[in-house]
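Now for my pick.
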Amino acid sequence: MKLNSSIIRQSINQLNVPWKSQWESWVGHAYVDEEELRLLDRPLLGIVSSHLKQNAFASQRWQNALMSALSFAREQNAAVFYSASTPYAAAIRNACIKTNSQSIQVDELQSGSLRSTIGCGKPSVAIDCEMDVASSDLRALPFLDRLIIALSHQVFVLDVDPAGKIAKLIERRLLSADFPKGSVFLAHHSRTEPPRKHRWVQSQLDRGAVAWLVRDTKQKTAPIHCQEGTHFCSVPIFPAKMLTQSASSFLIHCTRARQGAWPDQSTSQFYDELLINPWASPPSSLQSLQRILENQRLVATSHLKSGAKPTISFTQRTLSELLIARTFEAHLARWDWEPYGLMISRQWLEAAGCKPVIYLTRDELKNVSAEDMIFTQPYEHENAANKKGRDWRVEQEWRLPDDLRLHQVPLSRAIVFVKHSWEARLLATISNWPICFTES
C-alpha cells in the first residue's frame, strides 16, 4: 500500500497503556495515521485461536466460545480485535455484525503495511511496520497474531494447540510482568479437554491466565431424519455384489463429507447457519447424499476443474473398482472416493449433455477453446519432472455442464449406493431409485 506522504504518521507508542514498552520487542516500529490513532485508543479484546483442523470454527465448541467472547466484549464496551488472515476471520466478522459487536479487523498487505477495518462500513486504519525488530524468539511467529496479542487490553483464546504458535505467544505474554495479570482468558471445556491440553491450561493459570469455562449447549447432532426403517420399503434394497455386468453402463457420482458451505449455499449463508446450528460433528458423506435426495438436485461446481463454467463430475469406473482403489488425499483432507452416491445411466446422461473429459498436458491445453475447456482436464505424467499436479486420467471423468434435476431421472435409470444396509433402509423413505449397500 502506497501511503500519501502528506499524512502525518504517529507511533503506536502514543497509545497510553502500561505495557507499551513491550511493543517494539513484539512488532518492531509500528505507525498509524494521526487522525485515526484515536480509533485504536479504546479497550481492545483480542480474539485468537489455533486452527486445529479444517473448518474447526464450524464446531459447536468453537462457536460457543466465540459467542462467549463477544458477549464479554460487549459487557466491557471493548472492540473485538482479530486477524483477517486467519481461516476463522469470516466467522468472527459475521458474528460481530449479527450481534452488533464493535470490531477491528487487521490485515497485512504485501508492502509490509497493515490495514484494519473498523466495524462494518466504517473508516479503516493503516498500521505500518517500518521494521520488524521483534526479539528473535518472536520474529518467526505470525506478525498479525503478535500484533493482536501485544496491543490488546485483554486476549480471549477460543482454542489452542499446546505446541502451536498461539500457545507460544500466550506463554510469552503471561511471562512478562508488564502485561496485566488476569487479562488472558482461555476458553476451556474441563470435562472434555484432552489431558495434554488440560495440563497446558493449568500451567497458564499458574502464570495469571483465567480459565473461561464454556458451557456446551445440548449437543446437536445431524442424524438422518428420515422415518425409521421398517420391513416395508418403497424401493428395492440389495447388496452391491448383486450388481451385474450392466453396472458398467452407469456413470457414478460420489458424495463427500461436507467441509464448508453447501454447493448452493453462499458464504454468508454458511456463517449465518453456524451461528444457529454449529456442527456437533462434520456432516458426513451420508448426510450429503441425504440432502441431494431430499432436494432432488445435483449442483454443478467448478472446484479443481478447468474452465469457469460449473459442472457435475461423474466417473465411468465401476463401483467395485472405485472402492478397491480409493485412497486418502491428505492435501485435501478427504478420500478420493466415498461409498455413497448415485449411479445414473450413461446413455441417459449423454442425452442430457454429459460428455467424457479429454485429458491434455498443460501445453496442449493452451490450444483449447473456452467453450471446450469445461470438458478438458490437465494432467501430469507419473514421471514428469517438476510435477505440478496429479495424473487425473485414472478418474475416467465425465462432466455434465449444468445442475441435474433428479426428478427427471426415471426409476430404471439410477441406483443409490451406501455403505451399510441400515443406511439403505433409512434412505429408502426418500429415494426414488433402488438402493444397494457395499458392506459384505
